[in-house]
């Protein structure tokens, strides 16, 4: 075996795959550019780090469940209120995760709450932050099943490895007593330790529809908003309703087609 083959084999044995893949090309460039040994080694190490970072980001995205198409590239921030845009710029830097701060997007159906939180989640993963996205209803069913099997602490521990948990549509489904209890437990477990991002079409005064009891509602809100950024989108029009109206105006008139008002859009 020649020295080059020995080197690539050694690099692969050391789990330095990118260095093994690029050592030949970098060596050629180093000779042509008369690079020092340090510069040659630096370039190989840089490529290895770059590839490892990208692999980690790809893994975080696969595990997150975040909708892939909902990013800042496909979100029209110009339609958001000025104050909300300023808050979004602050949030997308990702510092809130290290500080265990929560983010709450509040607004009516169709204004882009889910899209906004998904965009922030993608930015966080690009920074190497572990994120889990779930509809609140699905996650509550997961926790209820764990509670029935007497393994709720273990399930909460699994969620704890995600620095940021995104609960989409909290309040969109009316929770029963058991769901309310596990949701409250989840929020309490993460309080001041891990970040939660929430989207909701209910203002805080309506959260009794989620937690049923006034004292529990106050305690839950306190844990969510104590350290939080509130993205108030309550005054925004539904972009889906606007798109539907535009489509109706462009389409040939019919007598039996439902109007936008007759078919309210689901939450975003």
Description:
The chain has 268 residues and is an alpha/beta fold. It folds into two domains: 60 residues, no CATH class; 168 residues, Rossmann fold (3-Layer(aba) Sandwich), CATH 3.40.50.300. The chain contains twelve helices and five strands. Strands 2-3-4-1-5 form a five-stranded parallel β-sheet. Helix 1 packs across helix 2, helix 2 packs antiparallel against helix 3 and helix 7 crosses helix 9.
Mean pLDDT: 87
Instruction: Tell me the radius of gyration.
Output: 24 Å
Number of E-type strands? 5
CATH second-level architecture of the largest domain: 3-Layer(aba) Sandwich
What distance lies between the first and last C-alpha atoms, to the nearest angstrom? 60 Å
Q: What profile does the largest beta sheet have? A: 5 strands, parallel
Number of domains: 2
Overall helicity: 55-70%
CATH topology of the largest domain: Rossmann fold
**Strand fraction:** 5-15%
Low-confidence stretches: 259-263
Q: Give the overall shape, derived from the CA principal axes.
A: globular
- Per CATH, the superfamily of the largest domain is P-loop containing nucleotide triphosphate hydrolases
Q: H/E series, N to C?
A: HHHHHEHEHHEHEHHEH
Number of helices: 12
């Amino acid at each position: 075996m020649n020295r080059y083959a020995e080197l690539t084999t050694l690099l692969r044995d050391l789990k330095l795959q990118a260095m093994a893949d690029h050592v030949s090309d970098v060596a050629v460039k180093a000779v042509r550019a008369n690079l020092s040994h340090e510069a040659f080694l630096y370039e190989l190490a840089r490529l290895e780090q770059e590839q490892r970072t990208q692999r980690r980001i790809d893994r975080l995205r696969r595990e997150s469940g975040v909708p892939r198409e909902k990013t800042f590239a496909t979100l029209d921030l110009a339609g958001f209120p000025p104050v909300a845009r300023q808050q979004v710029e602050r949030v997308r830097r990702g510092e809130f995760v290290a500080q265990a701060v929560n983010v709450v997007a509040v607004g009516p159906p169709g204004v882009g709450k889910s899209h906004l939180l998904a965009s922030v989640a993608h930015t966080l993963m690009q920074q190497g932050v572990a994120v889990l996205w779930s509809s609140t209803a699905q996650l509550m069913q997961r926790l209820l099943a764990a509670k029935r099997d007497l393994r709720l602490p273990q399930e909460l521990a699994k969620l704890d490895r995600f620095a940021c948990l995104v609960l989409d549509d909290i309040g969109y489904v009316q929770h029963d007593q058991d769901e309310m209890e596990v949701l409250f437990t989840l929020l309490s477990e993460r309080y001041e330790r891990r970040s939660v991002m929430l989207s909701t079409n209910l203002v805080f005064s309506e959260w009794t529809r989620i937690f049923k009891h006034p004292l529990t509602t106050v305690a839950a809100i306190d844990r969510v908003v104590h350290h939080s950024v509130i993205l108030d989108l309550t005054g925004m029009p539904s972009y889906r309703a606007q798109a539907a109206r535009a489509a109706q105006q462009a389409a040939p008139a019919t007598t039996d087609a439902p109007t936008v008002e007759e078919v309210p859009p689901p939450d975003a």
